[in-house]
């Protein structure tokens, strides 16, 4: 699963970078990125080479630029800052100033990625980062991951920390990663500053009796009895596939259910494969 996910991530990232919303003059730079404190900007002046350079944005959202002094960048998009710099330089310095603004280092906006990923942590929100790019940045999901990811949108004013989905701290959206792998680009949600991506651990079922590798196995949503048996290596030569039972806890009581191979299993189920009579 992890290998397929990384491969898909690469292809979808290419689609994202090729899409609408990128500056044609500077490939890969989003036009709608909002500049914030600690970002480092690269400004290229085509009129005066000495004005080109890297400019860190201070805590108050401003930076110092030659000829015109302090410039307010915080809260502006890259294109809006370009327009403002051109306006200020046109006032007594250049007739028609030409320049471009890009982000050298993203530091002001962040997303948190936690749960069943290889490298959980806090990552810079770089431009129009989407769900699949963020998960790829975290090294992809682990084999123990469920087939879902929860995106939790923090409430305004919350501390800069991961928000665990509990129904109180933020708005949570559940994304089916299998659908995303199948090419459902509508599931590739665009992320916002402060988002937490939570990949939960897959639930388990227990497979015992006449199977090749009895034990506990992680399952995805809508896993069938047949798929669970496959995780256990399949039924051995002594197993009776026509008399499989599921032992399930319902309302605190243990019940036995005669199961078909196409039946769906639930987390915590125990699948029993009996021996054939002959």
Folded structure, characterized:
The structure is a single chain. The protein is α+β, with helices and mostly antiparallel strands and 278 residues long. It folds into three domains: 2-18 and 109-199, Roll (Outer membrane lipoprotein wza fold like), CATH 3.10.560.10; 40-105, wza like fold; 203-273, Outer membrane lipoprotein wza domain like (Outer membrane lipoprotein wza fold like), CATH 3.10.560.10. Helices cover 18% and strands 29% of the residues. The chain has five helices and 15 strands. It has helices at 2-18, 78-90, 131-137, 177-181, 225-231; strands at 40-45, 53-56, 62-65, 69-72, 99-105, 110-115, 121-124, 148-154, 170-176, 196-199, 203-209, 215-219, 245-250, 253-258, 270-273. It has a five-stranded mixed sheet with strand order 7-6-10-8-9. Strands 12-11-15-13-14 form a five-stranded mixed sheet, covered by helices on one side. Strands 2-1-5 form a three-stranded antiparallel sheet, with helices on one face. Strand 3 and strand 4 form a beta hairpin. Helix 1 packs across helix 3. Mean pLDDT is 83; it is low at 1-28.
The parts where pLDDT drops under 50 for at least 5 residues are: 1-28
Radius of gyration: 27 Å
Shape: rod-shaped
The total count of strands amounts to 15
- The CATH homologous superfamily name of the largest domain equals Outer membrane lipoprotein wza domain like
CATH topology tier name of the largest domain: Outer membrane lipoprotein wza fold like
Helix content: 10-25%
Strand content: 25-35%
How are strands sequenced across the largest beta sheet? 7-6-10-8-9
Head-to-tail CA distance between termini: 39 Å
Oligomer: single chain
* Mean pLDDT score: 83
User: Which CATH architecture of the largest domain would you pick?
Assistant: Roll
Element-by-element helix/strand order: HEEEEHEEEHEEHEEEHEEE
Give the domain tally: 3
| CATH class division of the largest domain | Alpha Beta
User: How large is the count of helical segments?
Assistant: 5
Structural class comes to: alpha+beta
Largest sheet: 5 strands, mixed
């Amino acid at each position: 699963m992890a290998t397929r996910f990384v491969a898909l991530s690469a292809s979808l990232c290419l689609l994202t970078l090729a899409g609408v919303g990128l500056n044609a003059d500077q490939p890969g730079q989003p036009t709608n990125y909002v500049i914030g404190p600690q970002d480092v900007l690269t400004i290229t002046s085509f009129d005066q080479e000495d004005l080109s350079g890297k400019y860190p944005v201070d805590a108050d959202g401003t930076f110092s630029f030659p000829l015109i002094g302090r410039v307010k960048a915080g809260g502006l998009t890259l294109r809006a800052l370009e327009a403002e710099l051109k306006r200020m330089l046109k006032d007594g310095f250049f007739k028609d100033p030409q320049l471009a603004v890009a982000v050298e280092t993203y530091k002001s906006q962040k997303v948190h990625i936690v749960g069943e990923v290889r490298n959980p942590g806090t990552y810079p929100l770089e431009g129009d980062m989407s769900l699949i790019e963020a998960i790829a940045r975290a090294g992809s999901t682990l084999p123990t991951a469920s087939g879902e990811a929860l995106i939790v949108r923090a409430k305004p004013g919350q501390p800069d920390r991961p928000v665990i989905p509990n129904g109180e701290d933020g708005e949570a959206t559940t994304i089916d990663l299998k659908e995303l792998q199948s090419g459902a680009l509508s599931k590739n949600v665009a992320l916002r500053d402060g988002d937490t991506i939570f990949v939960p651990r897959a639930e388990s079922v227990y497979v015992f009796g006449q199977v090749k590798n009895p034990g506990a196995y992680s399952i995805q949503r809508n896993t069938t009895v047949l798929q669970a048996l496959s995780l256990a290596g399949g039924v051995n030569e002594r197993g009776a596939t026509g008399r499989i039972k599921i032992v399930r806890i319902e309302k605190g009581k243990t019940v036995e259910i005669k199961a078909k191979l196409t039946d769906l299993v639930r987390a915590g189920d125990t699948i029993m494969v009996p021996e054939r009579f002959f």
